Amino acid sequence: MASDFVQRFVFEQLNVRGRLVCLGPAWHQMLEGRNHPAEVAALLGHATTLAVLLAANRKGSGRITLQVQGSGPVSLLVADCDAELRIRGMARFAPERIAGHSERALLGDGRLALTLDDATSGQLYQSLVPLEGDSMAEIFEHYIAQSEQVPTFLRLLADTRTLAGMLLEKLPGADARDADGWSRVSQFASTLRLDDARDAVSEELLTRLFPEELLRVFAADRVAYHCPYDPSKVENMLRGLGRDEVEAMLDERGEIVIRNEMCNHEYRFDADAVAALFGDAARSAPH
Fold this sequence. Notes:
Elements: E1 5-11, E2 16-23, H1 25-31, H2 38-56, E3 62-70, E4 74-81, E5 86-93, H3 103-107, E6 110-118, E7 124-130, H4 136-148, E8 152-158, E9 163-170, H5 174-177, H6 181-189, H7 194-197, H8 202-209, E10 215-217, E11 221-222, E12 224-225, H9 231-241, H10 243-253, E13 256-260, E14 265-269, H11 271-284
Parallel strand pairs: 5-12
Antiparallel strand pairs: 1-2, 1-10, 1-11, 2-9, 3-4, 3-6, 4-5, 6-7, 8-9, 13-14
């Protein structure tokens, strides 16, 4: 499987498991029309990569939403991956303040929130941690170390063309099986580059990264961008507000414009559209 995949694997002779993500076309779709500076795209890419890495370990059980709020020029990052490994996300930032800042300075002080919408139980679970670390990878490693309570290696890479990431987890008993194993595979994983991930085939890439390790590789899972244009949801929301409030908004502004930042969609309603919206509702109402 080339491009847009997440691959789970284990080292057969070590108590270490891992996941590898490589995204190309799906990432292009997510960035299309947003005109993010390269620094912002990289941050959003790192958040998206981590959302996929985490969702892949819970495939079929719910939606992972990762949100980073900070005091810096990038005030908000949101990355979302659902049970079918479909991604979406957004960044809110001050364009005039981006240049010349390090990755950590772009975020400033703030917090990382990770929410799991568990499809099985119907419950929402959320973890909150402060932004600790000099990079997004370090911030996320700090979160995972606290939540999973296992030693973790994380590498996140992103530009406007490609995302790549690798997560390794050291399981209990790893040192007893091979005292040098964790250090060895972490060093190999740190050599992952974006160029390796462009149009990559998962098995071939893992073999190149870990040439002397015995790997068990599971079936790769496809990742896709999914954020469809859906006027019906916006229309239902406007109907819920009621004709009087919607017409008051229309009188004040001349046109109602509703923007979906997560999907980068804009919905516009002029006087004719509003009339049709409530006319249809009135005609369908029971007598």
